[in-house]
Amino acid sequence: MYEYFNEPFSFKLDLTPEQMLKVIFEYTAKIATEKKLENVLVLMANMGRDMVVADRCTVWLIDAANNELFTVVTHAIGEIRIPYGSGLVGSAISTGQPIFIDDAYGDPRHNPESDKKTGYRTKSIMTIPFRNNQGEVIGAYQAINKLTQKQSFSTQDMDYLTLAAAYSGKSLESIMLHQEIIETQKEIILAMGNIGEGRSKETGNHVKRVAQYSYILAAGLGMSQIEAERLRSASPMHDIGKVAIPDAILQKPGKLTAAEFEQMKEHCTIGYRLLRKSKRQLLQAAAIVAWQHHEKWDGTGYPQGLAGENIHIYGRITALADVFDALGSARAYKEAWPLERILQLIKEERGRHFDPRVVDVFFEQLPLILDVREQNEDLFETE
Ligand SMILES: [Fe+2]
Ligand SMILES: [Fe+2]
Predict the structure, then answer these.
(1) Is pLDDT at 337 greater than 80 in this prediction?
(2) Which of 138, 246, 320, 340 has its CA 20 to 30 A from that of 54?
(3) Which of 123, 201, 208, 242 is catalytic?
């Protein structure tokens, strides 16, 4: 019986070279085809655990933007985050040096707090930083409780974990890079969307809500997850063309003259021209949204006066999301409409302003839409 475990336990043996190869092949094949970062972290952790015959293993990564370290232990728990530099993992990462502890309770570097909470008994610990191709430390492996009779980790175990990190490093890096690019794109789009809206009396949460409504409508219409997500990211840019409309028009408190309104309408075409040259699918979607969000199902909209399905579905969805949100928000020049009146208008405009199918999905998904509206309320209304 192994005193450090609650359950009956017999010691295990270190892997034979054949077993080691089998573990490496099995995991690296899975890791290479994995697209999600959290899955790669779990696979890497399990691979390391099996290779060094540890009871537990975690893979920590650096989130430089937030000055934190994070890991995913299981899918159920999700991400865990700690400040950069804290704990054994933090010190291994910041010094670039591995840390071996044979008996955690005899070592001041070990913090017994989490054992106290979970009832787990940590004995041996091995924490090793790992690097990318450029030699920069990007994370650390932490293995806990060696399950062989020796009960402590060796430098050979360290070599194995370094190997595990090297085998998965490339997949890890490309996934992280991919995520970074996607996140950056989203942030830029939201920022650009806010510029367009900010110039035109809309509040910050307007673009966020329009994004969520568009996603709900797209998914409800049966679009694929990828496409619905693409529209969610693109729809905040619907008014980006307003960057080129003069303040005198955008900020005018009263009604626009006919000439001013004509100039205002140009924001659609301007937005389209700003975005259309990009080869990125996301920006192409944003270009369509910017161009067609004021088109109407019956052909009376602008700038092209398109009708029915000649209006891209992205335009038809964003049109409803945008109008629904704008009517519900108070502005300098108007009161917020009560919900009942907005819903009435949307019903009346079914087949006129709006695509009947989109209106039907809107009412099917109304509970979800109202949740989004409540969760993203404008706390500070523009005066
Ligand atoms: Fe607009
Ligand atoms: Fe808008």
Answers:
(1) yes
(2) 138
(3) 242
